[in-house]
Write a structure and sequence with these properties.
Length: 307
C-alpha cells in the first residue's frame, strides 16, 4: 500500500462536560444491547466489512485504541464505510483534500490531565493530576475527496481453511507462554494460573477455537503478576464477574482484529447481555474503563509475542 503523504496536522479537541461524553456513548451501546446486538461485533456482521475487519487507522497509519476503536467500528458499520482511515477536517485540508459538503463527522475522545494545586490542612501547597476527556471530530476517508488511492483501498479479505489449525495463530498463542491445556471446558483458573480449552476437534471451525482462546487469554492477563486487574468479582455471576467478562469480550475482539480472524459469537452471549446491560446502566463510565482494560490486555499480550 502506498504510504500516505506525511504532514504534520493536529486536531483541536473541544472539552465537553464529561457526563455528556460518557452518557452519549454508553446510551448508544445500551441501545444496541437492548436489541440484542453487540456494538463491538457489528463490523463482522456487516456485509461490506466481512472478513476484512481491522483496527480503525489515523491518517498516518497509527491505529486508534480503546473506546475509540468501538466508536469508529460502530460508525463504519452503521454508515457502510469500507476504508479503515479517519482524520480531522484540518488534517484533510492540510493534505489538500476536501470533506464533501454535507458530510457529518464522528465524535471521538481524547483523555488528558491537568494539574491542580491546593493547600492542605497544614498550609502546604500540593499538586494533583485531574483526568478529563476532550472530544474531537473525525471523518472517514469515504467522506473525503482527493486522497491518494491508499486511503480508499478496502482491506483484502482474510482467507483461511476453517477446518485446519492456523500455524501463524498457533505460534502467536504459544509465544505468550500461557499454560494452556486440553480439558472439558473453556476457562481460565487464576488459582492455578492455567487456561483450559476443549479439544481443538470439538469446535465447528478452527476460527471458533482461536476466538475462545483469545477470550480466555484476555482473562489470563488479569493475574496479579501481570496486569493485576481486579473488578470486584466475589462469586460467579455477580457484577464483578459481568465486568470481567465484558473486558474479555472486548479483548478477544481487539485481538481478533489485530490477528485477522472473526471473534465468533459464543452461545452464552445472550445471557451476558442482560448482565452487561445492568452494569452499563449502573455505571455510565464503565464501557470506557472496560475498553481501556481490554486495550491494555491486548498490548500486554502483543508485547509478549513481539517484545
Amino acid at each position: 500500500m502506498t504510504k500516505p503523504i506525511s504532514r504534520k496536522a493536529t486536531a483541536i479537541p473541544t472539552r465537553q462536560p464529561q457526563e455528556d461524553i460518557y452518557t452519549r456513548i454508553t446510551t448508544k451501546i445500551l441501545s444496541d444491547l437492548e436489541q440484542g446486538n453487540l456494538s463491538w461485533r457489528k463490523p463482522w456482521h456487516s456485509e461490506h466489512m466481512t472478513s476484512q475487519v481491522m483496527r480503525p487507522l489515523r491518517w498516518n497509519d497509527i491505529p486508534y485504541t480503546g473506546i475509540n476503536t468501538l466508536i469508529l467500528w460502530n460508525e463504519a458499520s452503521d454508515k457502510g464505510f469500507t476504508s479503515p482511515y479517519w482524520m480531522t477536517f484540518k488534517q484533510a485540508t492540510d493534505m489538500k483534500t476536501n470533506v464533501r459538503k454535507g458530510e457529518k463527522g464522528t465524535q471521538i475522545v481524547y483523555a488528558d490531565k491537568f494539574t491542580k494545586e491546593e493547600e492542605d490542612a497544614n498550609g502546604e501547597r500540593k499538586s494533583s493530576q485531574i483526568p478529563f476527556l476532550k472530544t474531537y471530530t473525525v471523518f472517514n476517508a469515504s467522506q473525503i475527496d482527493g486522497l491518494s488511492n491508499a486511503f480508499y483501498k478496502t482491506p483484502e479479505p482474510v482467507i483461511a481453511n476453517q477446518q485446519e489449525r492456523n500455524q501463524e495463530l498457533e505460534q502467536f498463542f504459544v509465544q505468550t507462554k500461557a499454560d494452556i491445556y486440553t480439558g472439558t471446558k473453556a476457562c481460565y483458573t487464576q488459582s492455578t494460573d492455567r487456561i483450559q480449552m476443549p479439544p481443538f476437534e470439538s469446535f465447528e471451525t478452527a476460527i471458533r477455537y482461536y476466538a475462545v482462546l483469545a477470550h480466555e487469554l484476555t482473562h489470563w492477563t488479569k493475574h496479579p503478576l501481570r496486569l493485576n486487574r481486579d473488578l470486584g468479582r466475589k462469586h460467579y455471576g455477580d457484577e464483578g464477574y459481568a465486568k470481567e467478562e465484558l473486558v474479555a469480550e472486548l479483548g478477544a475482539c481487539f485481538l481478533a482484529a489485530d490477528l485477522g480472524f472473526e471473534p465468533m459469537p459464543e452461545a452464552h452471549h445472550a445471557a451476558y447481555i442482560q448482565s452487561w446491560l445492568q452494569v452499563l446502566k449502573d455505571d455510565k463510565r464503565f464501557i470506557f474503563q472496560a475498553a481501556s482494560h481490554a486495550q491494555k490486555a491486548t498490548e500486554y499480550i502483543q508485547k509478549l509475542v513481539c517484545p
